[in-house]
Amino acid sequence: MATFRERTLKSGKTSVTAQIVRRNPPYQESRTFDKPKPAKAWAKKREEEIDAEIRLGLTPKKRSDAGVTLGDAIDKYIKESLTAIGKTKAQVLRTIRTEYDIAGMPCDKIESKHIVTFVKELHDRPDLNSSATALNYLSHLAAVFSDARPLWGYELDAQAMKDAQRVLTRNGHVSKAEERTRRPTLDELDKLMAHFQQATESNPRTMPMHNVVAFAIFSTRRQAEICRITWEDFEPDHHRVLVRKMKNPGQKGGVDTWVELPDPCTAIIEAMPRKKEKIFPYNGDTVSRRFTEACKLLDIHDLHFHDLRHEGASYLAEKGLSVPQLAAVTGHKAWKSLERYTHVRERGDKYASWKWINEVT
How far is residue 193's CA from residue 210's CA, in Å, rounded to a whole number? Predict the structure, then answer.
């Protein structure tokens, strides 16, 4: 049986070393992991391989001689990708690397059935409750399968991944996310704005989330984009800003894009203190967390910060903007993505007398 030794590193993280020893013939092999689960999975598979070689009268070869694992391929992919793969993708791949048995398998031994088993295991995660999330995990892993052989000669079978993706889609284990249609009501927005304004008045150093929320609605900008805009990127005379690294389906790392600023976005920006390089010098994750916490406190259900972007685009469509005019604000390159907003049933300006505009400008 393999033995396992845990130790705490200077960084405070824990490492687990799995060691396999055989006396006849003499053989020893060890490997260190971040967590116990992948260490045990690796040890179990290696012991089976070592014992099979001994029964055949062969001298066991260490894994380093036998070939790299999927975990090795993931590590190399994260380390050597020439374009930014993004925090979310990197975190998903690290989760696969450290928490799933498939990461301990040799690249040349992974078949479609192993990929299918991995995705079924994903659905057992307490924080993974949808086929759409499983699709994200599988898509990020598929990128490793696609690049490993041509880039590094690792024997990952891209066709095995495609076969697995096809059957998993057919059986419903992975699927695209349903299109969200949630929009906040004016009553919900009033509650949020009052809550955030009160928090800022109580402590002036607190992030003025009411300003951020208003800008998110009328500009249709994502939280990360809002927090990246600098004063240098702002052209008040032309009512536009340069959004750095805007998400683009065909371009990793995003594309710098000029977008139009509908009223009252320019006034909201000009009301912000000009003390730092960025107009909204906050962390995007903090913005999202503050919004989620406020919704929970105010008993507002199933509302995400990103829904404000949908609200803003819908509002502009209700005001009568055409698809090209909408695209100039949202930054969409493909107008087809905006077709959902061209069939609005209401027309008019629902924010014409919204009291909070005066509070943030």
Answer: 5
Among positive and negative, which fits the CA dihedral 37, 38, 41, 46? negative
Tell me whether residue 17 is in a domain: no
Instruction: Determine the Cα–Cα distance for residues 208 and 195; give it in Å rounded to an integer.
Output: 11
N-terminal to C-terminal alpha carbon distance within the chain: 69
Positive or negative torsion for Cα 177, 337, 229, 218: negative
Structural domain containing residue 338: 186-360
**Pairwise CA distance, residues 35 & 122, whole Å:** 17
The token pair that represents 311 in the structure block: 């609200």
Q: Identify the CATH number of the domain in which residue 282 sits.
A: 1.10.443.10
The structure tokens listed for 181 are: 């249609």
Span 120-177, pLDDT tens digits:
999 887 766 688 889 999 999 999 999 998 888 888 999 999 999 999 999 999 988 7
**β-pair partners for 106:** 69
Q: Is residue 230 part of a domain?
A: yes
Residue (of 18, 15, 25, 21) closest to 4 by Cα position: 18
Is 249 a member of any domain?
Answer: yes
Mean pLDDT, the chain, rounded, equals 88
Q: For residue 189, which amino acid is it?
A: L
Q: How many domains does the chain have?
A: 1
Would you say residue 165 lies in a domain?
no
One-letter amino acid of 330: T
H-helix or E-strand spanning residue 287: helix 284-297
Q: How far apart are CA 72 and CA 44, in angstroms?
A: 18
Tokens of 43: 């040890």
Contact 351, 360 (CB under 8 A): no
Q: Are the CB atoms for 219 and 273 separated by under 8 Å?
A: no
Instruction: In whole angstroms, give the CA distance from residue 28 to residue 271.
Output: 68
Write the pLDDT tens digit of every residue in 283-336. 988 999 999 999 999 999 999 999 999 999 999 999 988 889 999 999 988 777
Question: What is d(CA 46, CA 268) in angstroms, rounded to the nearest whole number?
Answer: 61
Q: What angle do CA 257, 260, 265 make, to 5 degrees?
A: 120
Answer for the pair 303, 188: CB distance below 8 angstroms, yes or no: yes
Detail the DSSP E strand segments found in 152-250. Answer: 234-235, 240-248
Judged by DSSP in three states, 82 sits in coil
